[in-house]
Amino acid sequence: MFLLHKVATPIVAITVYCCALCPLFADESAISKRAPNIVLILADDLGFGDLGCYGQKVISTPNLDRMAKEGLRFTQFYAGATVCAPSRSVLMTGKHHGHTRVRGNAGATNPSAQALRSEDVTVAKVLQQSGYRTALIGKWGLGDVGAAESGLPRKHGFAEFFGYLNQRHAHNHFPAFLWRNEERVELPNVVTPVGGDGAGYATKAVQFADDLFADEAIKFVIANKSQPFFLYWSMVIPHANNERTRELKNGAQVPDFGPYADRDWPDPDKGQAAMISRLDGYVGRMLATLREQGLAENTLVVFTSDNGPHNESNHNLARFNPSGPLSGIKRSLTDGGIRVPLIAWWPGHVPTGVETNHVAYFGDWLATAAELAGAKTPDHCDSISLVPTLLGQPAARQPKHDFLYWEFHEGGFKQAALYQGRWKGIRTGSPDAAIALYDQQADIGEKTNVAAKHPDIASTIGDYLDSARSESADWQPKWSGGKK
Question: Whose CA is closest to 122, among 161, 155, 157, 88?
Fold first, then answer.
């Protein structure tokens, strides 16, 4: 059962059932005549419990907390994967982890496996073909110059790009260069390189990349206010600089520690908290700009994260409890690795101060964006429009997924599925291994395997996992038990 209720009021239960996708804006009076602008803000490695509106007690996030009070907060929303590249591939293509192009972090050993290709249809392409001005600002991770150039952003629907192409390059928050479209933009930071792809750490830190991205995002919105626009603002914070952690034992390099400067904490803890509060300030700037420019009532802003929280800056996870009540972090298939914050804000359209536990995931943004733009959702997607929920329409209009699917290729292939929004099944070791089953209604932390009590449900999930993925030459399962 799914819930949609005002925060701090008694819960009202509503039944949601699966139906055909609703016509564009069933209640035409609820929206403006012009297709709305869309601003999709993606944090990097921000956990389910990292924001005040999701239970964070130590780190201050007043702007995102206000955004939640003025909008819609999802309590069971999932990233596309438990690590960066495949999660973003799901977000862009509307295909789940077993169908999308990029299914893991391939790195330098096989760069083409981490690149979209010409036949992949993205959210940006759908919106661009519908008359939107499109821009990607920040981290991409689905294409690069050289062997992965098939995935360059401007080949996939983005008219403008400014940021990082390579995700290892994006580890460094003070890089020596960024990319504007396909041209290198040199920065005044002095960097000790690690590898040949832009990764490393700054010894002279002058320009913080996410500050530049925030300025660029604001400029894009102002410059394009006379036409529908889609901004994919893909921040890097609070991701760690892994190379700096290995060399200097602190991967949380920021311009300043902000409100945490006087705390009696190690520097990695101050830096981690400062990154999240800085991110919060960026979001506040964007919402204020939309109001000042008269765009708020015609702009849907969505804030989320690409996967669960990391532990790679040498900071103290126990201090911040970034997964909240969930088990696991980034690289886990328990919910701590894949359940993420999702806040939607659109004054006059999205309900105010409301939360929903409608179960959705990254792949749903393609169908959602298509419906908002009046476009057709591409064929062969695993995507359901969230427009009914976003507009507060009756629950019967909102379809739902029977299954959600994830896999993970590091340290032995693993699979997971969520069935009926309640039952989480995880398979590890071999393709015929027993399913570990968790009842998320009774056990949100996934502590107790109940497969023996519910063998029929475990079997149903096992059967689904057997057929959930399509073949990919680049992403063959390599089980830790030795079976392929």
Answer: 157
